[in-house]
Amino acid sequence: MTDAFQQILDDARAASLVLAQTPTTVKNQALAAIADALLTNSDRIVTANAQDLDLSRGDGMAEGLLDRLQLTAERVEGLVRAVRDIAALPDPIGEVLGGSTLPNGLHLTQVRVPFGVVGSIYEARPNVTVDLAAILLKSGNVAILRGGSAAENTNTVLVDVIGSALENCGLPRAAVQTIDAFGREGANRLMNARGLVDVLVPRGSASLISAVVNDSSVPVIETGAGVVHIFLDASAELEMASDIVHNAKTQRVGVCNALETLLVHRDAASRLIPSILKKLVESGVTIHADDATRAIFPHAEPATAEDWGHEYLSLDLAVKIVDSLQDAIDHIGVHSTHHTDAIITNDMANAERFVAEVDSAVVMVNASTRFTDGGEFGFGAEVGISTQKLHARGPMGLRELTSTKWIVRGNGQWRE
Amino acid sequence: MTDAFQQILDDARAASLVLAQTPTTVKNQALAAIADALLTNSDRIVTANAQDLDLSRGDGMAEGLLDRLQLTAERVEGLVRAVRDIAALPDPIGEVLGGSTLPNGLHLTQVRVPFGVVGSIYEARPNVTVDLAAILLKSGNVAILRGGSAAENTNTVLVDVIGSALENCGLPRAAVQTIDAFGREGANRLMNARGLVDVLVPRGSASLISAVVNDSSVPVIETGAGVVHIFLDASAELEMASDIVHNAKTQRVGVCNALETLLVHRDAASRLIPSILKKLVESGVTIHADDATRAIFPHAEPATAEDWGHEYLSLDLAVKIVDSLQDAIDHIGVHSTHHTDAIITNDMANAERFVAEVDSAVVMVNASTRFTDGGEFGFGAEVGISTQKLHARGPMGLRELTSTKWIVRGNGQWRE
Predict the structure, then answer these.
(1) I need a labelling partner for A125 at 20 to 30 A (CA). Which of A105, A269, A310, B335 fits?
(2) A201 Cβ partners below 8 Å, 6+ apart?
(3) Beta-strand pair B228-232/B259-265
C-alpha cells in the first residue's frame, strides 16, 4: 500500500507542475470535455451510484444521508451545468496583485499562482467530487480527493470519467485522483503529507472538520459551523425585522448561514417579539427562549444553557432579551462561531459599532444572514465558508484557492 | 498553573477587543511611549540581561548564541529606533480591500482587521520580544510571547516596561504578555489554544519551526529555512554573474536568503566557473562541487549527496553543472525550500520560463537573492519570510499579520 499511495502523491506533484502552466483556454476546454463526458457516462455513473446506495441501505444509512449520496440522471445534469458555470468564470491564475519598482531599479511583481496539490476530505456526497475537481482544475490545482467510503463506487467512476476527459485534452489524468480505496489510513497519510500536499480543504460536518484540523500537519482551510445571530436593536422596524428573521430561520434550514439565535433589545421586546415569534411558530419553528421572552411570548420552550451557541440546523430558534447593544455584542462574542452575525437597526451609530466590534467573517446590517454565500457574493463557485482568520475568511471562491509568488526582475543588482 | 495560564489567554482576548478598535494615533502614541520607556529603562534592561548572560554562560552556551542573547545600551538604542520606525509605518487596519454592490442593492465591503491574539515562540533573542511587540501592536494584534528560557529575565523586564507604557496610554497591559515563566508546558498550551489564539508565528531555527508546525493545532504561519539556488544560464554575463553570486554567498552568511547552491549551465561552465569560484575562495568560501565542476576548478571539495539541498548558513557553497534549464528547474524543484531561487541570464525566454516554473516564494532574474527581505521590499517591518503557500508567501510585513472581514449593509433584503 505504501508505494501505491506514495505514487499518487508523486503523480499529483508532477501533474501540478503541468497544471500550473496550463493556459486558461486549455483548462476551459478540459472543463467542457468533463461536462460532456459526465453527460455521456450518466448511465454508468447512476449504475455505480445504485451499488453504493444498495450497500449503504443494507448498512442502515439514514434516509437524509442516502438522499445526499444519491445521483440521478437529473442530478448528473445539474453537475454538468455546474462544471460549465465554473468554466465560464474568470481564471484567477496570473492575476497581478501588485508590485513596485525599488529605488535600486528592481521590479517587483506579486502574481497569483495555484497552491499546487490540494487535498480534500469530505462525506459521502459524490456531487462534491465533481464540484471540487472542477473548481480545483479551474484554479490550476491538482486534486487528491477522499470522499466517504459509502460513495466509493460512484467516486471511482466519476474520477475515471474526469481523468479520461483530461487525457483527451492533453492534461495529466493525475490532476484529479481519489484515495477512497486507501480507507482511513489513506486519509491519515493525506493529512500528514506535509510538503507533498500544499493545502487541505475538509468539507462536511463540524466533527469531520475538527478531526482534520486536529490530525493534520498539512495546512488546513477550515470551513466551519455557523452559530448565526441576529440582534434586533431598540430601533429595529417591525416589518423589516420580521421578514429578515423569518427568512434567515426558515428559508432553508440545515445550512451554515441559517439563523440559530435571536437577540432582542429589552426596549423593543414587547413591540417586536409577539408577532415575529408568532409568524415563526406558524412556520413550524420551535422557540427556545429565556424567561424574559417567555413572559411576553408564553408559547416557547424554556431555554437551557445548551441553547446558547447551539447550531440546531433545524426548525429551532434560541431567543434571548438583552439589556443593551453591548450585551448583544458580548453574547455574540462568547457564543458565535464567527461565521455571520447581523444587526437590525435604524440607529447609524449602533450599526457602525456592531460592524466594528463583532469579530465575525461576515457582519451584516439590515439583511438576512442567508446572503453569506459565494454565489450570492458574486464569486460564481464556492468551496465553503471559512471561519478561520488565516488565508481566507468568509465565502471562498476560486481566488481563495490560490497562493502568490513574488517575481523580482533586475539587471545585475546586488545588496550593499 | 492552569488558572494563571488561562487568565493570560482570557486577558489577551479581552485586550484584543480593545486593540482592534484602537485608532492609529493612539497606537502610534503607545509605540512612542514604548520607545521612550525602553530608553529610560535601558540600565534595568541591560542589568537583567547580564543575569541571563551569566546564567547561560554558566550553562555553557556557545558564543554565537550568547551574542544573540546580549543587549547592550547601544543595542537597546537600536531597538528604540526600530520601534519608532514601526510607529511611522502606515496602519494596515481598516484598509478597504474591495467590495461591490449586489443586484439586490446589498453593499459588500471587505476590510482589513487584526488577527486578534497572535502567539509567537522563538529563541533566546530579546530583540525579537521588542520587535514582535511593536509590530503586533501596530497591526492591532495582541501578543503572547514565548521566548527562550535563557532570556527570561530580560524578557520579563522588557514586557514590564512595555506594559507600563501601554497603560500610560490607556491601553491594556495584557496587549503584550510573556509566558516564559510557564516553560515548555506553556509553549504546549499555547500551541493548543485553538480558538483562543488566532495565529502562531514561530521564529527561529528550522527545528523550532518544524516542532511548532507539528505540535500546534492553532494555525501557524511558517517562516522557513532558505536553501537558496542561483542558476547561471548559458548566456549569463560573467561580471554580473560573479557580482551577484559573490554578494548572495558572502555579503552576510547565516541568513535565510544567502546562496547555498550554485547551478551552472554546461555550455557556460568553463567560461564562468574558474573566475567566479576563485573570487569566492579568496573570500574564504569552501566549495563543495560535483565532478564536472572539479574538472574545471580542482580547488574544491567533492560534493556528497548531503550537499544538495543543504542549508549551510556558513561560508560553504555547493556547486553543480547541469545540462539544461530543465535540469536546473528540476534540481531546484527537488532540493529548494521554495524560499528564493534566481536565474542569471540574457535569454528572455529562459528567464520567463524559470520565473513561471520555479515554484518558490520569490523567483528572481539577474539580482542577488539577498534582496528577499521585508525591508528591501519596502514593507518597513518584517516578521519573517513565509515559505508556506497559505495566507502569506515571501516577506511578511504588517499586512500579512492581518485578516479580513466582510461587511454587508442592506435595507431589509432577504433571500428569495
Answers:
(1) A310
(2) A118, A119, A120, A132, A220, A221, A223, A383, A384, A401
(3) parallel
B366 within 8 A of B356, measured Cβ to Cβ: no
Burial class (CB in 10 A: 0-12, 13-18, 19+), A332: buried
> Which positions 80-119 of B are in contact with A (Cβ < 8 Å)?
100, 102, 106, 108, 110, 113, 115-116
Task: Enter the ipTM.
Answer: 0.92
- Cβ of A288: how many Cβ atoms within 10 Å? 23
Q: Are A229 and A261 in contact (CB under 8 A)?
A: yes
- Mean pLDDT in runs of 10 for chain A (416 residues)? 86 96 97 98 98 96 92 96 95 96 96 97 93 96 95 97 98 97 93 92 86 88 89 98 98 92 98 98 98 97 97 96 98 96 98 96 98 91 88 94 97 96
Contact in structure between A221 and A397 (CB atoms under 8 Å): no
**Between β-strands A394-396 and A384-386, what pairing exists: parallel, antiparallel or unpaired?**
antiparallel
Q: What is the gyration radius of the CA atoms in chain A, in angstroms?
A: 24
Cβ atoms of B191 and B200 within 8 Å: the answer is yes
- Please give the single-letter amino acid code of residue A277: L
Q: Do B362 and A404 touch (CB under 8 A)?
A: no
Q: Is the Cβ pair A414, B360 closer than 8 Å?
A: no
Residue-range domains of chain A with CATH = 2-223+397-408 (3.40.605.10), 228-371 (3.40.309.10)
- Determine contact, residues B11/B171, Cβ cutoff 8 Å: no
Helix axes of A2-20 and B348-357: crossing angle, nearest 10 degrees: 140
A415 alpha-carbon distance from chain centroid: 45
Whether B363 and A403 lie within 8 Å, measured CB to CB: no
Residue B292 neighbours by CB under 8 Å, 6+ apart: B266, B269, B320, B321
Closest-approach residue (CA) in chain B for A376: B102
Give, in order, the Cα–Cα distances in Å from B381 to each of A374, B165, B340, B395, B399.
Answer: 34, 21, 19, 10, 10
**Interchain contact, B389 vs A20, CB within 8 Å:** no
Q: A362 — contact with chain B (CB < 8 Å)?
A: yes
